[in-house]
Amino acid sequence: MLDRPPTTLARIIFSMSRPAGVDRERLAVDMRVTARQLFEQALAEASIDRAFQRHIDCERRVMRVCEDLYQLDSYSRVLVIALGKAATGMVNSLEMQAGKRFEGIIATSVDPGPQLPGFRCFHGGHPTPNDDSVLAAAAMLKSLFALDSSCLVIFLLSGGGSSIAEKPINDEISLSDLIATYRALVLSGAPIGEINTIRKHLSAIKGGRLAKAASGAWQVSLLVSDVPDNTPDALASGPSMPDSTTIEDCYAIAQKYDLLRQFPASVRELFDRRALEETPKPDDPTFHRSRWWTLLSNQALLEACKTHAVKQGFRVEVDNSCDDWDYARASEHLVNRIRELRKDFERVCLISGGEVTVKVCKGGIGGRNQQFALSCVEKIAGENMTVLSAGSDGIDGDSPATGAVVDGTTLARAQAKSLSPADHLKAFNAYPFFEALGDAIVTGPTGNNLRDLRILLAY
Prior knowledge:
By secondary structure, the chain is an alpha/beta fold. The chain contains 17 helices and 16 strands. Helix 3 (48-55) packs parallel to helix 4.
């Protein structure tokens, strides 16, 4: 949907102040700054604190969670299981809204900061598990098995949870085997939903198995989602939700991406014998006392960006059609789309959410957002166009950056430094390219995770 912003003095001044001899480099710098500002403003608006303020409150020991009420004094124990990159922030926000009355377990891949009273903290690995990931999963299972119908468990789930806490379904699968399996999945080029389908069926905690461990208790899950809105059970591989995927899906995905030869022997053997075990489905009694609420998703990020872009005088369109596309196909589509829009409108902002995929064939330093941005460099060379792609979690692949910004001057600036976009693209080595130009976006871990945001400006 194309939004028509109000006519403002700023827009009129901009329109009147673009003589033929306008300093193109100055304009490019301004638009790179504008793109970065739109990204930062969207992150600030779609914060976890604001989401909890909207959806959670507590008065006289009655906690409201969206449309549900929980009389906290009626439970013998309230246990919180917080899992994902936003785990610590979600616990802090929960306590801000409902008071410091909770206990539980926090598993996160970012520095959890000072120890929270009543909580055990684990520093799990991402994008592959580590020793703390296994310890966190074991601690969660032990705590949940001890609950009964007098107890309430609050699951706080966010992106990255799949690797941050993990226990293999089979004891024959070692941690090194688990790491090799995760690496094969992450580098396969498969979208996150398909990756998590296999993760669920290889895990003792995913695909509803944490919920099953706490099947005697009342359960509510609060989600800060980095997966498509129509597949919430893919978030952190769905440890507290019914699984919509099956073992047959796993076998098909493994064949589709030729994964068996990349898996370690202990995992490959399960596939060869077709010995994967099915996960709990919606009709499982485990979920009769369960509720799930999405507090934040990629949509919140898009809406916030859209609002600020309209205020800046841009005509705005949102195009999410390339979610889970290969990065090269997605960049071609979005660049062509904004060119079409630019024919009709002077200042255009095209916003795109979700994630693109990258099948890594050799190892450089970078991530999907920088790879996407790098693939746009030659496409938009010489044009009055700016492209930003960045992750809301502050992390892009194995680089220190969360994304990058490019424009019509990037190719010339790169050539002046003897940098070849094509060579860096082919080597999956985007970060050194952008770091050399000063166009890498570095925020550090944000404590949030709402998928990626792509902002294209034409002017």
